[in-house]
């Protein structure tokens, strides 16, 4: 069953970089020292997911000035 964790230090998880304070949903048995089980309403309300990989690169390309 997936659980919500708060990121305590910058972490690379499942191919994505998470910053301090981000919330991540994972199906793991025992989190490392960089994660804390989110409690209460914070667990139910994830922060909007940041795009990663190709989607993020495409958005950045769209914000560049014309040459």
The biggest beta sheet, please?
Answer: 3 strands, antiparallel
Strand order of the largest sheet: 4-1-5
Q: Roughly how many Å apart are the termini?
A: 49 Å
Strand content: 25-35%
* Integer count of domains: 1
- Tell me the overall shape: elongated
Radius of gyration: 15 Å
- Name the helicity range: 10-25%
Work out the helix count: 2
Structural class: alpha+beta
Weakly predicted, low-confidence segments: none
Mean pLDDT: 79
Q: H/E series, N to C? A: EEEEEHH
**Multimerization state:** single chain
The number of E-state strands comes to: 5
Structure in words:
- With about 70 residues, this protein is α+β, with helices and mostly antiparallel strands.
- The protein has one domain (about 5-60).
- It contains two helices and five strands; from the N terminus they run E-E-E-E-E-H-H.
- It has helices spanning about 40-45, 55-60; strands spanning about 5, 10-15, 15-20, 25, 35.
- The strands form two sheets. Strands 4-1-5 form a three-stranded antiparallel beta sheet. Strands 2-3 form a two-stranded antiparallel ribbon.
- It is elongated.
């Amino acid at each position: 069953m997936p659980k919500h964790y708060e990121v305590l230090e910058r972490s690379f998880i499942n191919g994505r970089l998470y910053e301090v304070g981000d919330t991540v949903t994972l199906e793991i048995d025992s989190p490392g020292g960089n994660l804390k089980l989110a409690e209460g309403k914070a667990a139910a309300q994830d922060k909007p997911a940041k795009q990663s990989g190709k989607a993020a690169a495409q958005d950045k390309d769209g914000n560049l000035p014309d040459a």
